[in-house]
């Protein structure tokens, strides 16, 4: 499946845990297109954010079960990418915020 490079990265995950990973281990977390693979994610990050990527880890997060009265449903799942940047690389979008 051929995905446009702008449709691969949906949005960054900004939590306390992701901030600590970024500062200590130079890793950045993103929610990505569920059909994208590691190679496509690496190319998208390098081209769109202008940084060098060392490696990409990917995990599929299942949707949570939710109840409303007697009705039960499932929220949609997501695909999460943990991108390790090469030494000396930093993302400018997170600096100074």
TrEMBL record:
SUPFAM superfamilies per UniProt: Ribosomal proteins S24e, L23 and L15e
Keyword Endoplasmic reticulum applies: no
Keywords tagged on the record: Ribonucleoprotein, Ribosomal protein, RNA-binding, rRNA-binding
GO function terms (MF aspect): rRNA binding; structural constituent of ribosome
GO biological process: translation
Pfam families: Ribosomal_L23 (PF00276)
One GO CC term on file: ribosome
Family assignment from sequence similarity: Belongs to the universal ribosomal protein uL23 family.
NCBIfam families for this protein: PRK05738.2-4
UniProt subunit comment: Part of the 50S ribosomal subunit. Contacts protein L29, and trigger factor when it is bound to the ribosome.
Function, in words: One of the early assembly proteins it binds 23S rRNA. One of the proteins that surrounds the polypeptide exit tunnel on the outside of the ribosome. Forms the main docking site for trigger factor binding to the ribosome.
Record-linked PANTHER family: 60S RIBOSOMAL PROTEIN L23A
HAMAP family xrefs: Ribosomal_uL23_B
Name under which the protein is recorded: Large ribosomal subunit protein uL23
Gene: rplW
């Amino acid at each position: 499946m051929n995905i446009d490079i702008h449709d691969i990265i949906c949005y960054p995950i900004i939590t306390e845990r992701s901030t600590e990973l970024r500062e200590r281990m130079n890793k950045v977390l993103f929610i990505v297109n569920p059909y994208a693979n590691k190679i496509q994610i690496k190319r998208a990050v390098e081209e769109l954010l202008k940084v060098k990527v060392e490696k990409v880890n990917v995990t599929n997060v299942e949707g949570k079960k939710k109840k409303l009265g007697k009705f039960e449903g499932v929220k949609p799942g997501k695909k999460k990418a943990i991108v390790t940047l090469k030494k000396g690389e930093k993302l400018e979008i997170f600096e100074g915020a």
